[in-house]
């Protein structure tokens, strides 16, 4: 968890650096599109602080009030980040509207673009680090932050292309047009981020391929039992919660039933390291005909 906190702190620092560079590019050129890019970077800074706080909260151990831990705090951060992206898009649309009303020739466009592209390169490198390490650490907040920065990279490249076209054609309206395109793109990425994060808050089941793996482990490792049924799963940050009912012969001792449970738990944890597993043992007459996992 200390490593994820360092990455979150790094996001705040990178966010400030990128915002400074993009603001400088806007001051050098007066471009509405570059201003829109800088405005989006303010969201990066705010989101970086939100991620830092969320990861600190998520790292707290389970307590009396939160017996399942604080893992979901990261999803709140990701939802907030999506909302901030939408707010940034609205601000950009406002600036683009002003550009349509009073278009103007850009100042020092090449120098400004070079500064903006330097900021874009910094964002791209950091986005790759966040997404890669966030997936490794199973941190939805870091992955969301990385995806947000990646969307910022795409829009920055689009802005640069638009400004170059404006210079080549001598048509200043391309500047606010590009700013509008940026706003539409980040509205889409923001709504997608909110949807993915809400899935975590709503206790969405594990992906199909992971569920299939859990089924296979239970089926192969629970020998001696009759069946397993009513498997339920959910993901909360780095923690995976799995619970199911295990039916055993009516004359099986508690000791042997517990041995089977231990064997299944250990096998699942070898694959899903952070899994929290709850198994409810039932006698043979509790067998079901639906949602059943057969035992090999």
UniProtKB/TrEMBL annotation:
GO cellular component, as recorded: plasma membrane
Protein name, as recorded: Protein p34
Family named by the database record: Belongs to the cation diffusion facilitator (CDF) transporter (TC 2.A.4) family.
Top-rank lineage group of the source organism: Bacteria
Membrane topology (UniProt): Multi-pass membrane protein
Keyword entries, A-Z: Cell membrane, Membrane, Transmembrane, Transmembrane helix, Transport
Cation efflux protein cytoplasmic domain location: 206-284
InterPro entries: Cation_efflux, Cation_efflux_CTD, Cation_efflux_CTD_sf, Cation_efflux_TM, Cation_efflux_TMD_sf, CDF_Transporter
Record organism: Pontibaca salina
Pfam families linked to this entry: Cation_efflux, ZT_dimer
Subcellular location: Cell membrane
């Amino acid at each position: 968890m200390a490593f994820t906190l360092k990455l979150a702190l790094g996001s705040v620092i990178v966010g400030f650096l990128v915002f400074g560079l993009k603001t400088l590019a806007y001051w050098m050129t007066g471009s509405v599109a570059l201003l829109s890019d800088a405005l989006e970077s303010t969201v990066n800074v705010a989101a970086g602080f939100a991620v830092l706080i969320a990861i600190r909260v998520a790292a707290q151990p389970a307590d009396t009030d939160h017996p399942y831990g604080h893992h979901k705090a990261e999803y709140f951060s990701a939802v907030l980040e999506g909302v901030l992206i939408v707010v940034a898009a609205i601000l950009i649309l406002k600036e683009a509207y002003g550009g349509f009303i009073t278009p103007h020739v850009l100042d020092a466009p090449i120098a400004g673009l070079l500064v903006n592209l330097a900021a874009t390169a910094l964002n791209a490198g950091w986005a790759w680090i966040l997404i890669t390490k966030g997936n490794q650490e199973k941190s939805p907040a870091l992955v969301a932050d990385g995806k947000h920065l990646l969307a910022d990279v795409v829009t920055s490249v689009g802005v640069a292309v638009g400004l170059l076209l404006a210079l080549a054609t001598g048509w200043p309206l391309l500047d606010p047009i590009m700013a509008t395109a940026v706003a539409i793109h980040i509205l889409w990425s923001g709504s997608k981020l909110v949807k993915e994060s809400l899935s975590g808050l709503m206790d969405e089941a594990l992906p199909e391929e992971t569920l299939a793996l859990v089924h296979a482990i239970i089926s192969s490792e629970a020998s001696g039992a009759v069946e397993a049924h009513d498997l339920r799963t959910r993901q909360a940050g780095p923690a995976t919660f799995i619970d199911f009912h295990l039916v055993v012969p009516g004359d099986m001792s508690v000791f042997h039933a517990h041995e089977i449970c231990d064997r299944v738990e250990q096998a699942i944890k070898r694959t899903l390291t952070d899994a929290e597993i709850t198994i409810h043992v039932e006698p043979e007459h509790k067998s079901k005909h639906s949602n059943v996992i057969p035992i090999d």
